[in-house]
Design goal:
Structural class: mainly beta
Distance between the termini: 15 Å
Shape: elongated
Strand order of the largest sheet: 1-3-4-6
Order of helices and strands: EEEEEE
Number of strands: 6
Radius of gyration: 16 Å
Largest sheet: 4 strands, antiparallel
Low-confidence stretches: none
Strand content: over 45%
Number of helices: 0
Mean pLDDT: 92
């Protein structure tokens, strides 16, 4: 098991306020226009393991919903993986 493809979908419902995030201002790739936000998050990527205990995950994340905007259609991410 050295290679894995994955697809994750999530429906997020977030309630926040000005102490957590400023609305109408980009925080990284994401900007919210209301403090109560519902959106779909889709992540597509793959994991590659170099040996039995270490690997890397490469993925793209997409956001769609009302009251949320992104600078780009997708955000690229990478994570180191460790098995214990």
């Amino acid at each position: 098991e050295q290679f894995e493809l994955f697809l994750n979908t999530r429906i997020n419902s977030v309630s926040t306020d000005e102490t957590d995030i400023e609305k109408d201002k980009f925080n990284g790739n994401v900007k919210i226009t209301e403090y109560d936000v519902n959106y779909l998050q889709l992540t597509l990527g793959f994991n590659v393991f170099f040996n039995e205990s270490a690997g890397i995950s490469l993925y793209n994340t997409y956001f769609r919903g009302n009251d949320i905007e992104t600078l780009e259609d997708a955000t690229f991410g990478a994570t180191l993986l460790f098995k214990f």
